[in-house]
Amino acid sequence: MVKSLQDTTTLHNGVKMPWFGLGVFKVQEGQEVIDSVKWAIKHGYKSIDTAAVYKNEEGVGQAIRESGINRDELFVTSKVWNSDQGYESTLQAFETSLQKLGLDYLDLYLIHWPGKDKYIETWHALEKLYKDGRVRAIGVSNFHVHHLENLIKNSEIKPMVNQVEYHPHLTQTELHEFCKKEGIQLEAWSPLKRGELLNDPTLLEISQKYNKSVAQVILRWDLQNGVVTIPKSIKEQRIQENADVFDFELTQEDMENISALNKNDRIGSNPDTNMTGFE
């Protein structure tokens, strides 16, 4: 059982990744992102997830420096965007992200979106960065099973993480099983479906039983399903509340009732129909 914000899952290359982190998608560059990240670190978060396309890497880096915490205590993720896919352009994009963050290395670097035809050469660039010790782990985001199969077949190193849209309306069962079988850690973006799940009657009922919020119940469900989760918030109280999920455990029956809410319903784009993709 995941017992605290500091608890980690071990990726297939031996690197330890926190089960829980802060996502900063759509968090504005400048004070907004600086505050969010500093509050998260203050309340014990170790994992921060950003991306080139979020345009807030500089603020994330500034918050890390101002937080006073040792760099090696944090787990920082960024991602290469579609317009930078390709071998040389990915290597360049990585340098740009590092520079903006003001860091010497990343803990995790992801291909943000499979796109159409460049993700294999993009992956080869990530393999080089990994072998050169510039990043501790590499992975992908928004990849379906067929993307992963193609990638594994055409590469030396298997992705360590696949970060996808994942919540009770989109349980991604087949993808989750495939990732487990291949030793790829599944990670959830938009775990609360941008707030759309917060008034669901089943979830409300379960939340009352545990005296927790619906958000806390969903995030607990993620963890008990073995899925890393990175809820986003720009409010200090909510950042703190989101992480208050380590003092209770959902029963098997409640876990199943939450999973039964699945409708295969996405809030973001489907990587198969939207090649340019945006969460």
Descriptive tags:
eight-stranded parallel β-sheet; 279 residues; TIM Barrel; NAD(P)_OxRdtase_dom_sf; single chain; Aldo/keto reductase; two-stranded antiparallel sheet; oxidoreductase activity, acting on the CH-OH group of donors, NAD or NADP as acceptor; Aldo/ket_reductase_CS; alpha/beta; NADP
What would the principal axes of the Cα set say about the shape? globular
Main sheet characteristics: 8 strands, parallel
Major sheet strand order: 3-4-5-6-7-8-9-10
CATH superfamily: NADP-dependent oxidoreductase domain
- β-strand number: 10
* Domains (count): 1
CATH architecture: Alpha-Beta Barrel
Radius of gyration: 18 Å
Short structural description:
The protein is α/β, with parallel strands linked by helices and 279 residues long.
What does this structure look like?
The structure is a single chain. The chain has one domain: NADP-dependent oxidoreductase domain (TIM Barrel). It has an eight-stranded parallel β-sheet with strand order 3-4-5-6-7-8-9-10. Strands 1-2 form a two-stranded antiparallel sheet. With 279 residues, the chain is of the alpha/beta class.
Layout of strands and helices, then pairs:
Elements: E1 8-10, E2 16-18, E3 22-23, H1 31-42, E4 47-49, H2 57-67, E5 75-80, H3 87-101, E6 106-111, H4 119-131, E7 135-141, H5 145-153, E8 161-165, H6 173-182, E9 185-189, H7 201-210, H8 214-224, E10 228-229, H9 236-242, H10 252-259
Parallel strand pairs: 3-4, 4-5, 5-6, 6-7, 7-8, 8-9, 9-10
Antiparallel strand pairs: 1-2
Helix pairs in contact: 1-2, 2-3, 3-4, 7-8
